[in-house]
Structure formats: C-alpha cells, structure tokens
Amino acid sequence: MNEFGKRGSNTNLKSDIGLDNLGNVFWNMSPAELVEDTILLGEGVMTDSGAISVNTGKFTGRSPEDRFIVCDEKTEKAVWWGKINKKFDVEKFDALYNRMKAYLTGKDMYVRDSYACADDDYRMNIRVVSELPWQSLFAHNMFLRPTDEEIENFVPEWHIVAAPNFLADPEIDGTRQSNFAVIDFTKKMIIIGGTGYTGEIKKGIFSVLNFVLPHEKNVLSMHCSANVGEDGDTAVFFGLSGTGKTTLSSDPNRRLIGDDEHGWAANGSVFNFEGGCYAKTIDLSAEKEPQIFDAIKFGALLENVGFHGESSTPDYECDKITQNTRVSYPIDHIDNIMVPSKGNEPKNIFFLTCDAFGVLPPISKLTPGQAMYHFISGYTAKVAGTEAGITEPQTVFSACFGAPFLPLHPAKYAEMLGSKIEQNDVNVWLINTGWSGGAYGTGSRMKLKYTRSLITAALTGELDKVDFITDDVFGLSMPTSCPDVPAEILNPKNTWEDKAAFDKKANELAQAFVKNFETFESNASEEIINAAPKVMVK
Ligand code: ATP
Ligand code: MN
C-alpha cells in the first residue's frame, strides 16, 4: 500500500475501518490532481469553462429502494421502520462489508477528509473513501473543507466507503439488487456499492444528520435552502426535488447560506450542513440563472450532461442521458454567500411546491394550522417528462418535504418546526412554482421571474400592504396584487379558461390531500386537522 498526499498522523484506514491491502491510497488530493486522474483514467472530460464532466454510469439518480439502515440497539426503537427506512441485519452488514473489502484488495483508493455542519457546536467529521477520483472531488465540493492544520489532526467520526464497481449479490448479501447504500449508526459507517450516483454520498450523510440532530441534540434538521437579506433576515425554502430550492435561494440581493440541507438549533442558529451546491443543469441558461451558470468553472463537477456536437461546450438542453443532469461546486463559486454558512432565526419560511395540476396559487400566506398541515403533507407533483404515453402529472406526498431522508417519524420534525414557528412568530408562505393557466399539457410553468418577484415582495413586506382573498377549496389566503406580477395570475382560477375543469381538478387534488393525511391524523391537533382542504361533495 503506497500512500500519497496530505494525511493526518493520528488515524489510519486499517485500525479505523479494517481497510488493508489496498493499492495506492491518495489522501486529500487537490481538485487539480483529481481532475487530472479523472481524465487520465478516461472517466471524464474538461469542458470549455474549465469544469470537468463525468458520466455516473447506470444510475443517474438516487435509488431510494436500495437504501437500508442497520437495525440494532441504537436504531431499533428510534427509527420509523417501513418502506422508506428498510431494516438490515448487523451480521448482513458485516458480511457485505467483508466482501466489499475483498473486492477492494489491491485497488487504488481516494480518501477525503471533510466535515458536515457549519456551526462549530455540531460539526461532524467525515472521511470519504472512494474508488473513483471524481467521487473524491464531489465530496470536496459538497462537504465542508478543513484547513491544512485541521487535516493534520483530523479524527474521523463517520466513514463512507463508496465502490461503484462492486456489485452486491442479492442471494448472498440480502440486498434488493446489485446496488446498495447501507447506514450503520453504531459503527458510524455508510457503505455504498453498485452505483456511481454521487447524490447517494450527500444524501447518506443527510439521513445520518436527520437522525442524530433531532434525536440527540435538539436541533431541527430540514430539507431546505436558506439565504439572508441585507438586514440580516433569514429565509428558508423547503421543497421536494425540482421545486426550486437551489434556483430560488441564489438571489443576487441576498446572501446564500446553502441550497439543500440545514439545521435550526435551539439558540436560533440556522446553519448549512454542507459546503457546496448540487444544482440541476437541465435547460440552464446564463440569462435565467446567471449565478449558477457562472459557478460552472474549474473545480465544478458536471454529471451526465450532453455536448454541442463534438465540442467541449455542454448542451444543457440535452436530456439524452437523463433529465437529472447536475453540477456540484463549492459554495464560494457563488459570489454573495454568508461566511460561515449560518444565519439567525428565520423571519420567513417558504414551502415550495411544483403543482402540475395548476390549481394552487402562485403565493399564499398560511395560518399556523395550515403551515403544519402542508409541512406534514409535503405535496408536489411530478410530470411524466419524456416518458411516452404519459400525459397526467402524478401527485407526490413526501412528509416534511423530505421523507426519503428522514429516519424518525415525521411527527418529530413537525413538532419541532411547529414550536419554532410559534415561538418566533415566523411568516409561512406556500409557493407554487408549477403550472398556471391549466394543468400540465394545457397551461405552462410559472415564469421564474414572477416567482422571484412574489418571494421578494413577501420578504420586503410589500405583501403586507395589499388585500388578500381566500380560496374555497384549500382555504388559502392569496394576495390580490403584487409588484412586477400580473394581478390576474394570483388567483389560479382566473388563469383557466374552463372554470368547471378548474373546480374539478382542485377538488381532485383536495381529495388526494385528505386521503394522504389519514396516516397522520392520530398525531395531529384539531387546529391542524381543521386546516385540511374542503372537498366538495357532489
Ligand atoms: P433538488 O432537491 O433535486 O436539488 P431543487 O428544489 O433544488 O431540487 P431546483 O434545482 O431549483 O430544485 O430545480 C428547479 C427547476 O425548475 C430549475 O431547473 C428551474 O430552472 C426550473 N423552474 C422553472 N420555473 C420555475 C419557477 N417558477 N420557480 C422555480 N424553478 C423554476
Ligand atoms: Mn437543489
């Protein structure tokens, strides 16, 4: 085993996680070295803006059904087991990891020392050991970066071992298929195999923090982006994938805290878990999203994008490999950021939903009961996109806008958020970044500039000066005017030609909300239950 690079003196792979007999071990390589290795190994190409571009292989997205948690003394009673949190035996973990170690014998590996949580009180050291150089670049981009001195004395708390080319055998290993991500809270390890999708690394640590912080440290963990205005006012944006967390939190007039994962501590601190952003690049343009476009320079890692002809210019409209094309970059690739990535108690919370049915208003102000109802529901809609023959959008309810990453029962997160909203008198807004003028197929996606103007008006207090009306189905309070936004789009019914069709769709969606909420009713107060939409009986 030959070792290269910056390596602290106190720990090693053999004594910490039993990894021995590797080939070369590259410790904490610089981005330039990792880019070089990626190109030399034929794993990636340099683009004309200096970013590197790779293909992640068979998986271009996360595989939630192949994510397991080891069930032992620490987790058995605490985790909300079910379809999302699937049990894995202690013995099975040991056996699978032994086979993984055997596979790694003689292989070159990349080690990255990093940490999560930008608030020193909650800092968690993470060592990522990966088969491929660009996975190490991803970890460098996405997690927080220790100083050279901190690397000298680095003691890892959690380990991630990621080997995309190691395939599990379900018969032997007890996995569902050849790819897997297994979290062991006692050993403090995540092992990932059979998939090169980098999001598994980032969301693995997010799942860990979603357990540790609320369960052991009284910190609410949130699937949200966050930024801070000139007056130091923090805003957070919850939302499921594709609803606009990354897009809407990069705002030239507000400093970015982070684009995806945050904690809200008892002392009011809102802090980023990560040190970078992971943005979608599909249809990205310099005009619509200049900050993200400009962040794609040397050090940034593009995934699964296409190119214009034979050139090295990415074609962001190309979805030949996947709709989920991505780029990771260190947060300082964005010019106006908070350093460190922390803010104070939020003044405004936005729930982002991409309603492809086109019936939720572009913005509405929620009562405390409605805020809890919508948080627990976690509604968005997925459009079929390129799949042939599918024209109807599908409703998605994902509790707390992040169910796949939440090891605890949703009620835990909801209770914490509810009391924080109450104590701090936070404004809560529901934003529909989805369809207007009809459902998917008839209407069109809300213009990004209107959504930005609506959010700005909420943040600057402009919306406190206007009249609101209430819709009959969802009971949502909608403004009747807003600067820089046409008044007629503020009430979605006005944008539909066929009013009867609108009522029918709104009623259908209301029914879906009510049905979804049945599971949570026994945990909810009367105030929350009363905030449910009113389904019209025919
Ligand atoms: P993930 O959790 O997967 O990172 P996300 O919530 O960060 O998802 P974004 O990456 O911001 O989602 O994706 C939103 C996408 O929708 C972007 O491609 C953006 O350009 C597009 N979009 C179109 N119209 C709007 C709008 N009105 N508001 C927000 N985003 C919009
Ligand atoms: Mn995002």
TrEMBL record:
Catalytic activity line of the entry:
oxaloacetate + ATP = phosphoenolpyruvate + ADP + CO2
* GO MF assignments: ATP binding; kinase activity; metal ion binding; phosphoenolpyruvate carboxykinase (ATP) activity
Q: Which residues bind ATP?
A: K203, H223, G239, L240, S241, G242, T243, G244, K245, T246, T247, E289, R326, T451
Any Gene Ontology CC annotation: cytosol
Which pathway, metabolic or otherwise, does it act in?
Carbohydrate biosynthesis; gluconeogenesis
Q: Which positions in this protein are listed as binding substrate? A: R62, Y197, K203, R326
Per the annotation, how and in what number is the cofactor bound?
Binds 1 Mn(2+) ion per subunit.
Q: Which family does it belong to?
A: Belongs to the phosphoenolpyruvate carboxykinase (ATP) family.
Matching entries from HAMAP family are given as: PEPCK_ATP (MF_00453)
List, alphabetically, the PANTHER family matched: PHOSPHOENOLPYRUVATE CARBOXYKINASE (ATP) (PTHR30031:SF0), PHOSPHOENOLPYRUVATE CARBOXYKINASE ATP (PTHR30031)
Name of the protein? Phosphoenolpyruvate carboxykinase (ATP)
Q: Species name for this entry?
A: Brumimicrobium glaciale
Query: Lineage, please?
Result: Bacteria, Pseudomonadati, Bacteroidota, Flavobacteriia, Flavobacteriales
The primary gene name is pckA
